[in-house]
Amino acid sequence: MENYDTVVAALQGLKTKGYTLDFNVGADAIHCAEHDIFLHPDDFEIMESYRFEGETNPSDEDIVYAVVSKDGKLKGTITSAFGMYADSTSNEMIQKLSSHK
Questions:
Q1: Counted domains in the chain
Q2: Is residue 52 part of a domain?
Q3: Which range of residues forms the domain containing residue 75?
Q4: What is the value of pTM for the model shown?
Q5: pLDDT by residue for the chain (101 residues), tens digit each?
Q6: Count of CB atoms within 10 A of residue 13's CB?
Q7: Are 93 and 41 spatial neighbours (Cβ–Cβ below 8 Å)?
Q8: Is 22 contained in some domain?
């Protein structure tokens, strides 16, 4: 697994590995708006994750996830999937995102 200094570097590095779709976290699924694709927690696996803390405040945290659909056909990334979305996200989705270390 690579070491990246910034979120942008992580996204660029993962794109070169084929993680080209951009997913956002919804209440009970991740969604790629560009292709209108929804993947529920049982439909994808987290292959890699990178955590970045803010320089002035460690609670300013960004997380980049590399995700792959169970069938291996879809590869993409999720950024900042935790934190701001936690209130509107299902327990199943929160468990999925927090289980990858």
A1: 1
A2: yes
A3: 7-98
A4: 0.83
A5: 789 999 999 999 999 999 999 999 888 899 999 999 999 999 999 999 998 876 666 556 788 999 999 999 999 999 975 555 455 667 787 788 777 65
A6: 17
A7: yes
A8: yes
